[in-house]
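Human: I would love a firmer grasp of how sequence relates to backbone shape in proteins. Could you go through the record with me and say what the backbone is doing? Here is the record:
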Amino acid sequence: MHRLQASRGSGGAAPRQVYNGVKNAPAYPKNFTTTRSGVQATTTRNPVSNQALLEQLRQIEPGDWAKVYKDRWVGGERVSLHYFQSASGQVFDFAVKPGWNN
């Protein structure tokens, strides 16, 4: 596991961790499901457009990185996983947010 200094806004830099795959992030929900009552959840992958952040991510692993939004259910609640992912599956800045973002 790597640590990377990443700054967001004027709040300064804070260390963030990098994981080998999204399921290795400690906050990954264990009861995460993709379908409920016939409704299929979605995943969106966007290229990283922030060049300063992309340069930092490429220090961890060269190549392409994507910002991922993965909508699912945890129990009866809709949640969205947000993270950056490299082509090989490295995950950075993992977060679980309430509601769906896709």
